[in-house]
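Here is a protein:
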Amino acid sequence: MQEQLRHQFGLLVHDETPMVRRSSANNLSKFVKEMPATIVIEEMIPLFQHLASDDQDSVRLLTVEILIAIAEVVPKEQQSSHGVLLTALRSLIEDKSWRVRYMVADRFEKVCETLHLSHVPVLIPTRLPKL
């Protein structure tokens, strides 16, 4: 049953209508918080990546909260092996839309806290000045 629900949610994430994808992005962070880390890594991170590369900035800006939720659920030692989160964060920091960059800047303290301070120096020297 849970697997079917995750599959159905995945269909919503990939929907052709931006409003559906926005709503999915808005709720994915809540969904992630209720799952074990293994499912988050295997199933939810790909959904996050899809939303983070959406053509609508109104969808991409919502992925900052998803990134935070994933970082809270996935253990610190597994985050290093899944550079996906840092790669996605770099993309969000460099996003062409000011709204997305603003959301990253607004939630940057929480992002740094959940990704753990050892990752922050990787971002600051070359990426942060673009904000």
